[in-house]
Design a protein that fits this description.
The structure is a homodimer of 436-residue chains. Chain A is of the alpha/beta class and 436 residues long. Chain A has helices at residues 13-24, 26-33, 65-68, 86-95, 105-122, 138-143, 160-172, 176-186, 194-197, 200-214, 233-241, 303-322, 366-376, 406-416, and strands at residues 2-9, 35-43, 60-61, 73-78, 99-102, 126-127, 151-157, 224-225, 244-255, 258-269, 281-288, 292-299, 343-344, 351-361, 381-386, 394-401, 404-405, 422-431. The interface between A and B is large, with 64 and 64 residues. Chains A, B: Keywords: Amino-acid biosynthesis, Methionine biosynthesis, NADP, Oxidoreductase, Threonine biosynthesis.
Chain lengths: 436, 436
């Protein structure tokens, strides 16, 4: 039986999972590929720690070049993460004619174009199913069987840490800080959770999904990104009263020649399937012009599910090798010369429904003042809740608006927040009512 | 730009959708394939009815041979349905070296092996994403990115007509016959709904999923199949009281060297995502050894979603053609010589939890008699509900069992149903508690 040799950069959690999967299911994989896939070299700075798996003697090296220059290795798996040296290694692998499989969303969100161009020049594949939503095979589906569709929307719950925290805040009525601390103790959140809780990780993944679905380059830095750290249990309670749950949502929308791409806490109807995505699970919902709405759900992270996606990509490439071809499909699923440069719609121009919570002094005329300003900016109120009266004290006033222009809402809040009856910065959460 | 010519057999609803999609999104598809995909011939017995789309003059023919023998046509799309002449046409297309795309689950469930073998001999692809769950790209995912997994379970809601009827029975408390009649008036059910409501369509689809997930041949006739026509609104109400919804579920399980494959109404917990799959939507949940649980959700039928799947397959084949290769992957994702013949587990040997509704005369000692028989067959009771007492009249007694062996349950019911205190055949519905 033919042998296809692969090299692995990075023996962390995911890398260990990939090595384990290639060994555990070796015969299954051979039955599907018609070749034996062999892990020939693994490069990691730490080659002494026991990862709980048995590796062939001499397979480990601290020198990445050993596998980047090995002519027997056809596929390089990059699981180092971060920008450097991952980028340098990936480009060198491509330069040496090797196919690349990576889970590195940060790298692709920022340097994707350069890497895709290099791969096109060399006629090799760059696959990255594991970069978005762990094991869920959503990228393959967009590039593959759903490829005939013009997509109009993407809604994703893409960060397990955030979704775990929000689920517990919702179920327990607990506050953000307390849940985060406990999540860190339980290993569900990193010691430095900034990338997760501030939405950066979600924005990286959204950048990839937007590129794939809309066939466009995305300037990652232009994606509007808000995290969940400013959410309060009060907002989650009000959301429930209005029939919503709050999720950190990655939102992509096609609007003519422009694209919306934004990450922020979002209220979604409790009866939408995305509202039932709890804990560390991920889900992505798309709408295509022919397929209609479609949703994928599964484990969005972790050693085993992510390894499933990485090895799925290796199988894809191995089938090409067995068929005697190099590159079969460009990384984004579009011919390289067909990828567009659609402009990102500025945040001020998006339209949405809004939940706004004002912290006001309970005094006659407050509501008239607030609604007067909203009205002057063409923001119409769908419903309003003013909690129990406590004359002279701070009370929350919650307003749900009809569709309004973000810039108008911002201007109105800036104006209202200067009033002396307003005790603190108002809370604004966008609402997605139909998710189509 | 290179041109890839395809021929379409059958211009019914799906065929019309495929023609429409190929025309509407022609430039998008070219951008993804690098070739123009042209519909060169369409064969249908009826070439006069207006389908609401504009076709090139002379493209329509009543003679399938015109396209089966056309050397310019690389891909034949079979959307006739049924066994003959679909089978003859598919085999002839393969014999003539053409790739085949089909949505014909009945054909593949019964004659798949013969067709796959012919395709292997000729080195052509046979793709059938549209045969299961309409637009949802679940077959591509099993063959493709999820291929590294050993799957343990499949749970599918695969028939839109049944799910529509069950959703309305659940929401409205209505009876089966009334909802079916109304569904027929609204076009959600066929004039002869037997294939749908008796579970045959679901079993065809399950046969394909079991083959793909477990890499085995399945004898379609051996799949245990029960439909929804014997369900009563009483059962749906009791299910809700116990925290369940009733769905027509396709169930596939791997158990060592054997496979369970069965279709029947099933109680699933209300908080499982599958319980929220309503109306004409479909969903499939798998568990793989590395990916864990994963679920796909979307429109399971209809002109446009099904066309999305068919054209997705055409794109897949076209990318191969552009890469200069014929066949890249066998129909089931396994090398043809690696497909196994796993035995189907006889229904009597499955283990499940059961809901049993006895229609008994309300008389002292009835419960003792029933539970005595259950106990004698090692069936242990988890809970029991006996409705309001009406001495001497027929009352429902509902028993939820712990895990028990199907053959024991059958024997116990056969025995109990002969008692003169039992007024009619007892109702039995299987329960799936964890869906993993």
């Amino acid at each position: 039986m033919k042998e296809i040799k692969v090299g692995l950069l990075g023996l962390g959690t995911i890398g260990t999972g990939v090595a384990k999967l290639l060994m555990t299911n070796a015969s299954l994989i051979s039955a599907k590929v018609g070749a034996r896939i062999t892990l020939k070299k693994i490069a990691d700075l730490d080659i002494t720690t026991d990862r709980g798996i048995t590796l062939t003697d001499g397979i480990l090296t601290t020198n990445a070049d050993e596998l980047l220059t090995d002519p027997e290795i056809s596929v390089v798996i990059e699981l180092i993460g971060g920008y450097e040296p991952a980028k340098r290694f990936v480009l060198k692998a491509i330069e040496n004619g090797k196919h690349v499989v990576t889970a590195n969303k940060a790298l692709l969100a920022l340097h994707g174009e350069e890497i895709y161009k290099a791969a096109a020049n060399k006629g090799v594949e760059v696959l990255f199913e594991a970069a978005v939503a762990g094991g869920i095979p959503v990228i393959s589906a967009i590039r593959g069987n759903m490829a005939a569709n013009n997509f109009s929307t993407i809604f994703g719950i893409l960060n397990g840490t955030c979704n775990y925290i929000l689920t517990r805040m919702t179920d327990e009525g607990a506050d953000f800080a307390a849940v985060l601390k406990n999540a860190q103790e339980l290993g569900y959140a990193e010691a430095d959770p900034t990338f997760d809780i501030e939405g950066v990780d979600t924005a990286h993944k959204l950048a990839l999904l937007v590129s794939l679905c809309f066939g466009t380059r995305v300037t990652f830095g232009d994606i509007h990104t808000e995290g969940i750290s400013s959410l309060s249990s009060v907002d989650i309670k009000f959301a429930r009263d209005f029939g919503y749950k709050i999720k950190l949502l990655a939102i992509g929308k096609r609007d003519g020649d422009r694209v919306e791409a934004r990450v922020h806490p979002t209220m979604i109807p409790v009866n939408n399937p995305l509202a039932d995505v709890n804990g560390a699970f991920n889900a992505i919902r798309f709408t295509g012009d022919f397929i209609g709405p479609v949703m994928f759900y599964g484990r969005g992270a972790g050693m085993d599910p992510t390894a499933s996606a990485v090895v799925g990509d290796i199988i894809e490439i191995s089938r090409n090798i067995m068929a005697g071809i190099g590159r079969r499909c460009a990384p984004l699923g579009y011919r390289d010369d067909a990828v567009a440069n659609l402009a990102l719609k500025p945040m001020g121009e998006i339209e949405s429904k809004y939940y706004i919570r004002f912290s006001a002094v309970d005094r006659p005329g407050v509501l008239a003042k607030i609604s007067g300003v909203l009205g002057s900016y063409n923001i119409s109120i769908e419903s309003m809740v003013q909690s129990a009266r406590m004359a002279g004290e701070e009370v929350p006033i919650v307003i749900m608006t009809h569709e309004a222009l973000e810039s108008d809402v911002r201007k109105a809040l800036d104006e209202i927040d200067t009033f002396d009856i307003i005790m603190r910065k108002s809370q604004l959460i966008r609402i997605e009512d139909n998710l189509e």
